[in-house]
Amino acid sequence: MSDALIREVQEDLQRDRAIAFAKRYGGWVVGLLLFVVLGTAAYVGWQNWQAKVRQDESARLFAAITKLETGQTEAALADLEAVGAETSAGVAALARFQAAQAAGAAGKADEATANLEQVAGSDLDDAILKEAARLAVLGRQLDEGDPAELISELEPLTAGDRPFRHQARELLGLARLRAGDTAGAKAAFDDALNDPSIPIRAKARLTEYRAALESAA
Question: Which of 106, 169, 179, 187 is surrounded by the most beta carbons within 10 Å?
């Protein structure tokens, strides 16, 4: 369940944020910005160097992802770890998300969680990515973590203006079930189901949860 939720979060990120990140951290954007800050020849030279750095970082990330896609999991994880440690904050975050997904698929739960926690606790200037990482960490803790602590951390993430409120409400309901609070779980599931923007797959899962709870009553 936790891995499925992480994949869903990552799919949301890929759909809504991949292009934005490519534009934000791609070397070609730095090049486009040069004309705004021409100044002296030395400054232009420095900007060109920055552009090359971004291009090199992107190339390293995509090379690691290519290894992952071609089944070279161990080599890809090593490369993604290096990219996460040695590149700028945005590229590093993307590398760590990829590493978390790959590690989880390979059964390396601790490694997956560690990568997500690094993103959640980083100085990345992107609250949405950090929140996605925090939510993914909480999802991984669902089976063994303290339900009361999980509920406390999840509740703020369920507000109507939070980007991953659907996943947070689902996890909150499951955490409340673990805590023995069936009524609270139903309320969390209903909050998610009553949100018209809920993704189709999440709606199907939550409908099944509600049906199961009603049949068990």
Answer: 169
